[in-house]
Specification:
Keywords: Repeat, Transit peptide. By secondary structure, the chain is mostly helical. The protein is 64% helix and 1% strand.
Length: 498
């Protein structure tokens, strides 16, 4: 049984001792240099400033190179060839970083091939680890595996960082079950290789992945395996374990991990707070959720947009519209600028609460902001509000309106959402016109599209009678505003929140 004294989430970090940089002498000097005074702190910082200046200069060069490739004016290889005297490995690393943000994984491979032809190129694990990571983020698992084999052919011996990148690459694939099995296979292989033993990063990657898959048993196994090793868990480790428990509604186990985390002197960060807020919100333990939010506001950490998104969504699912609107107001008071995800959370919240007109107001304001195109996910959120509240005709009307005005570009997910909703509502007339619209837009349905449609047809008879009704209000939800405020007791402990 885990126990801990009173938890104070705002305890400060322990200060780290500073080490003084030693002066560097040039090698090969003929005579000994005259005695000099020890370098002052001002001079020791000059080296750091020089490194920063070099990094800034490299970033400028990279921006200039990428600017010349915009619009298809020149290929990245031709630009590199014209600047071959300037480009070095550091520039290539920065190019990998920038191109990974722009979906330019093909260009990354072209740069890699170009690097291999340069005199200064020396194959090392850092280059391959970076490229494998880039390929993984873009879902190019096969290319990541090819790079791994290329690395071995070049005589490089894989280390822990390379395997970490390879595991992450597999976890980005669509087949999560297969990806998790592959990741565990690499994990076991790393244990058997001397220079590839799993480190804290390896465990944190796997813990997060299995937490997102809601595989609590595997999370517990990994956590125990880490405790039996020489590796000390950090805040990311504890966050991963708590997230697994929270997603499965195991609040007591989550709280026990939090107590343990504090007892080992590990300070919670904003992800810890967000994990707690989301877990309590999912279980509609709103008194605890609100107390954690208050504790976050008093701590040195600051709320993030996901903090507010969790609260808005969970209040909406509980049909506590006024509570959700207060969160939106609090977000505005604190000076946070809403993102398109924020607007989608608000739309869905009004949808859960049956406030279709309010959702329509939010969506109209989104259109009136002058954005050239609204995010397709925002359009889907508004369409879902119409469909779940029994007004499929309004949903189809909105679809036609955005296509005519060009304010949004529907994709296959949009049509899939509407197709399922129209079949559940037994609206064959809307299904027919939707199929014609799909054909006009060039949307070709896949196998999964029709499987979901068949599932919807199977339940349409049960849903048809309720198609014109709003989602009924849940009577099992308790409004936490009616409960007395004070220190929240979690797991029998007074945590001092509020």
């Amino acid at each position: 049984m885990l126990s801990s004294p009173h938890l104070r989430l705002s305890s400060p970090f322990f200060p780290y001792p500073r080490t003084k940089a030693q002066p560097i002498r040039a090698e090969g000097s003929v005579s000994a240099p005259p005695p000099q005074k020890p370098r002052t702190k001002k001079k020791s910082l000059a080296g750091k400033g020089g490194d920063a200046a070099a990094a800034a200069e490299a970033a400028v060069v990279v921006r200039q190179l990428l600017r010349r490739t915009q619009g298809g004016k020149e290929t990245i290889v031709s630009v590199l060839n014209k600047n071959v005297r300037v480009i070095r490995q550091d520039h290539c690393f920065l190019l990998f970083e920038e191109l990974s943000k722009r979906d330019g994984w093909v260009q990354c491979l072209e740069i890699f091939r170009w690097m291999q032809r340069q005199r200064w190129y020396v194959a090392d694990n850092g280059i391959f680890s970076k490229l494998i990571s880039v390929m993984g983020k873009k879902g190019q698992v096969r290319m990541a595996m090819w790079l791994f084999s290329q690395m071995r052919n070049c005589g490089c011996r894989p280390d822990t960082s390379v395997y970490n990148s390879l595991i992450t690459a597999h976890l980005h694939s669509r087949d999560k079950t297969k990806a998790l099995a592959k990741a565990l296979g690499y994990f076991e292989k790393m244990k058997a290789i001397e220079r590839c033993h799993p480190n804290i990063v390896t465990y944190n990657i796997l813990l997060r992945a299995f937490a997102q898959a809601s595989d609590v048993k595997q999370v517990e196994t990994l956590f125990k395996d880490m405790e039996d090793s020489v590796i000390t868990p950090d805040v990311y480790t504890y966050n991963g374990v708590m997230d697994a428990y929270g997603k499965n509604g195991m609040l007591r186990e989550m709280e026990a991990v939090l107590v343990r985390m504090k007892s080992y002197g590990c300070k919670p960060d904003v992800i810890t707070f967000n994990t707690l807020i989301d877990a309590y919100g999912r279980k509609q333990a709103f008194d605890k959720m609100e107390q954690v939010f208050k504790s976050l506001l008093r701590s040195k950490e600051s709320p993030t947009l996901p903090t507010f998104h969790c609260m808005i969504t969970n209040y909406g699912k509980a049909r506590l519209r006024e509570k959700a609107e207060l969160v939106v107001q609090k977000m505005d008071d604190l000076g946070y600028r809403p993102s398109y995800v924020t607007h989608e959370c608000i739309l869905m919240m009004y949808g859960y609460c049956g406030s279709v007109s309010k959702a329509q107001e939010v969506f109209d304001k989104l259109l009136a902001k002058g954005n050239k195109e609204v995010q397709v996910s925002s359009l889907n959120a508004m369409l879902d509000v119409y469909c779940t509240n029994g007004v499929p005709s309004e949903a189809y009307g909105l679809l036609e309106d955005v296509i005519r005005k060009g304010t949004a570009v529907p994709n296959s997910s949009t049509y899939k959402l509407l197709y399922k909703a129209f079949t559940k509502a037994a609206r064959k007339d809307l299904v027919d016109v939707l199929l014609k619209k799909m054909d006009q837009q060039g949307i070709v349905p896949n196998k999964r599209f029709f499987l979901d449609a068949l599932e919807a047809y199977g339940s349409s008879s049960a849903m048809a009678s309720d198609s014109s009704k709003v989602v009924p209000k849940s009577s099992s939800v308790k409004d936490s505003s009616k409960k007395p405020r004070g220190s929240a007791k979690i797991g029998g402990l007074n945590w001092g929140w509020g």
